[in-house]
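Sample intake — Glutamate--tRNA ligase
Collected from: Nitrospirillum viridazoti CBAmc
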Amino acid sequence: MSVVTRFAPSPTGYLHIGGARTALFNWLYARHHGGTFLLRIEDTDRARSTQAAVDAIIDGLSWLGLTWDGDAVSQFERRERHAEVARTMLAQGHAYHCYCSPEELEEMREQQKAAGLPMRYDGRWRDRDPSEAPAGVAPVIRLKAPREGETVLQDKVQGEVRVQNSQLDDMVLLRADGTPTYMLSVVVDDQDMGVTQVIRGDDHLTNTFRQLQIYQAMGWTPPDFAHIPLIHGPDGAKLSKRHGALGAEAYRDLGYLPEALRNYLLRLGWSHGDDEIISTEDAVSWFNLEGIGRSPSRMDYAKLDNLNGHYIRQADDGRLVDLIGPRLVTALGRDLSDADRDLLRRAMPGLKARAKTLVELANGAQFYITARPLPLDEKATQLLSDEARAQLATIAGRLKDASDWTAATLEGIVRTYAEETGLKLGKLAQPLRAALSGSAVSPPIFEVAEVLGQAETLARISDVAGGA
Ligand code: GLU
């Protein structure tokens, strides 16, 4: 049987980082088995579902490269089908009408509470004759759940989990206004979409027993289930806003590459020996449910940064220029010219070696295409003492006559000058860095000069040292 997985987010907010991991695992499982990965938007809660959230989820999944097969399914649009299944269960004797008023249910709850009992519907309409139905009351449809025995789940991650059927009450399938409940909708959709493997957060584990009872009542074969432990913050507490970014798109804005986040999310709860850096290709070929851990995983932002740095160093230079382009446009307040882009591409090997995020990369790249005279930060100003400026003027005179404009030749020229004057190379290189980059940190300075070219290098030195 061909594998079918699905990601079934409720569109009540952004694509949560935990949701993104669930989507990734489902996507990997389907791709690993050459199966199908479906997207179902669980938009039945009309008050809380928004189109903006649907868009954010689709945008987040697309950015992460988690492409689904076919069109996204709207759960809400399938409500008639869900209702039809409830009526079928009713007709087959697996469900019944319940005419309890809200007041009656409230009273039942109060009594159970007072007696220290768990709050459950007591099944009072389960075996009552429909002729006893009060006039003018629209009934709900409830599942006639088994009362004896137990419901057993063979979970691919949690192992065997059992619940006594006496612990589960007769849940509502169809409300009095004819709308299906979430529990029913999920089962009908998974069945109709041919889902073979449900991979989702373990906060849904208790729902699964109820869902299994619906499969059983309909005589349907349930899919396999794998409930993955939730993600916790670095302090071990349930992940919340105070732990930082929660939405996948926030990671894009913070300058993470999708492949880095994929690798990070994969390792957040799944392992393959000691491997930390796992390409998406390897992830597809290695992914299995056996590698999913049983305990909650903790966010580790330093690890994410390190992975991101790795993927930035691996990334194509032209792609990185495109990715930092919008940030530079904002920072500089102008569009980038072809010459800017060309220069940035040549500068990229030196820049990407030291950036952990695209934000750092853009910040580090900005000086290359900032118009002269370059603003100097505090440290650069300190480095450019009168003495240093005078030395730079002399160096500029020699650089003018450079036989060629490569980092090695330029370094040779400055080294010779250092030896002649008895100065340490660093004593000259730091002011040169200040003049060329406006700061005290940059890629290797002779590389910077090579990328800037002779005219721009001399002009930048002249801006601080005069002459040349
Ligand atoms: N809509 C549910 C959620 O967003 C997921 C349901 C499921 O995966 O079965 O948590």
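Post-analysis note: The chain has a mean pLDDT of 96.
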